[in-house]
Every structure is written in C-alpha cells, then in structure tokens.
Amino acid sequence: MAGRPSFRDRAVVIRTYDFGEADRVVVLLTRTHGLVRGVAKGVRRAKSRFGSRLQPFVHLDVNLYRGGSLATIAEADTVAYYGAGIIEEYDRYTAASVVLETAERLAYVAAEGDPGLFERVTEALERMQTTTHPTLVLDQFALQAMGAAGWAPQLFDCAQCGRRGPHHAFHPAVGGAACHECRPSGSAEVEEESLHLMWLLAHGHDDDARAIAEATPYLESEAHRLTMAHLQWHLESKITSLKVMDQR
C-alpha cells in the first residue's frame, strides 16, 4: 500500500458486516478520527491474522490506510476485551448494544473526532462487565454524552421559563422538566425523584443513584424511559437495539 497515507488510533468496534467473499467491513469509533469504516481483507478465511479481534465490544490499537469510502485495516491489536461478562448475560448485552448504537449515532453528529465520546464508551463497556444495574450504566452514558453534545435535559427548573422546581412534567420538546403552565401536550407525568435520579447519574453520583434504584425500582424504570425519550428526540430517530432491550 505504498503511497497511501496511514494513521494509527485507538478504536472500539461498533459493528461489522460481511463484504465480498472473504472480507469484512468493521465500523470503528476511534479516539481522534471519529467514526471510521474500514475493510479487513481476508478475515473470514480460517488463517486470518486478526479476524477474531474485529468483533463488537473490543478495544483495539489499529493501523489503517486511508481510502475512499472505506479505509483498509492493516493491523489490529487488542487493548481490552469487554465482551467477557457482557455477551453471556442478556441484560448487560442488550444495554451494551444500545451504548454502541448510541455512540455511532452521536459520532455522526460530531463535526470531528471526539475523544470524550470514545472515553465515555470504553468506560461504560468496562463497567457493564460487572454491573448489577446495566440500565443505570447505559443511562449514565447517555446523559453524560448528551451533556457533552449540548442536549442535557433540564431536570429541576422549568426548561421553558426557568421557574424554580421541582416539577412533575417532562417533555424533550421543551428541553426536559416543565412547570404546569409551560408543559406541552403529551408531556409525561413524572415523579420528581426520577428526575433526581437522572441528575445523580448525569453528575457521576453512582452510589447514590444505585441506592435509589435498589430501594425504588420503578424510579429506575421511569428515569430510563425519560432518558431514552430525550435521546431519541434529539437524534431524530429510533435506536433499534433499544427495542430489543426493552422487550425484557
């Protein structure tokens, strides 16, 4: 591949699909180059050098050659394998799949590579391996990622007029919590403790959030529903893997 510029980066495998007879396209979220689609040539053959590494939930050190719509993956060394503890446990697997799909959608929105998004994904996947509350890990990732994107929901004061909270209505169209006068048609009627739980997750108060979720499980469910509604509103599309997760 002489003459073709190359680059090295850290990456997480988001998803893969077969390409041609022996190749595979690998969608990577990289630390500094954003979302990259790379083709791994010949990896579906039995003697492939690194085919087993190019799977979702794997953190890689990759060397790629730039191409047109597809880069070429020349090297891929495993940094961490997050699949252990995730792929064999349904709740963790489905929540982790939503993390990956959400990261891909958010990477499209970012104008260029966002190292912060990459770090949030790897942290969420690492925690997902052992957590007893995969929904909390997912929601914390989503809330913090939305905060970095400028989409953080207002969780106390009214998002429309600023009236002091707490309030008991929530709608993504107004930016989150809404007072009685500002709440639009179709607003969700919510417990203020659900919004408090979301605030704890967004600000990294994991122990306090877990204590609330364990004491009052329905607050965890409501916070999850509100978080995902807010996320999908701003992405302007449904998250496919979320439908699978919420079937449980």
From TrEMBL:
Taxonomy, superkingdom: Bacteria
UniProt source species: Corynebacterium guangdongense
Record keywords, A-Z: DNA damage, DNA recombination, DNA repair
Family membership noted in the UniProt record: Belongs to the RecO family.
Coiled coil region boundaries: none
Residue span, DNA replication/recombination mediator RecO N-terminal domain: 7-82
Protein's name according to its UniProt entry: DNA repair protein RecO
Claim: DNA repair is one of the keywords in the record: yes
Function: Involved in DNA repair and RecF pathway recombination.
Protein's UniProt keywords contain DNA repair: yes
